[in-house]
Amino acid sequence: MNPLVLSSVFRLPNTKGESEDFRSKIKEEARIKTIGELLYVIRRMKKLHDTKPITDLCLFKEGVEPMWEDPQNISGGKWILKIKKDTVDQRLFEKLMVWLAAVPFQTMEVNGIVVSVRGYQTILSLWTKTCPERDEKIEQEKEIRSMLGLKTAIIVAFKGNEESMKDRSSFRNVLKEKEEEE
Length: 182
Description:
Blueprint: E1 4-10, H1 22-25, E2 26-32, H2 35-44, E3 55-61, E4 77-84, H3 89-102, E5 110-117, E6 121-128, H4 134-148, E7 156-160, H5 161-167, H6 174-181
Antiparallel strand pairs: 1-2, 1-3, 3-5, 4-6, 4-7, 5-6
Helix pairs in contact: 2-3
């Protein structure tokens, strides 16, 4: 197992035009080197429905920061799943954590996962080292859906980190882009 780092980022809603130093808000919660340590963290972790919005919980390979600008992330992007709050978000996040730690993805290199707790929804994202081509996107989405047992009603969309840096958002315009592809 590659060593992993669990971190959290809590932010207050900011007013338009304000910028924030995201890096300074990253708080390391745990370093995980074994499956036993991962299972311990999962059992002790605060439940998502008890987590304050706007919080991101990040599980990344050691040496990779949960930021677009990280050298391991800059050429990649993220697969995004927006889920209504309190449906199955906790189980999906835990499943992704175990998958990242124990089972390599067949169709992509995943650097980390993020669960973003927001007011009425939870957003899960798998951060990839590279951006997939069109055919690769189809295969990667199939693997994600199969691994998580997702219904077709749940939208799974990809957004490159280059695009995120341009519009200063991990999630903005992702559904619009997904609809344009189809």
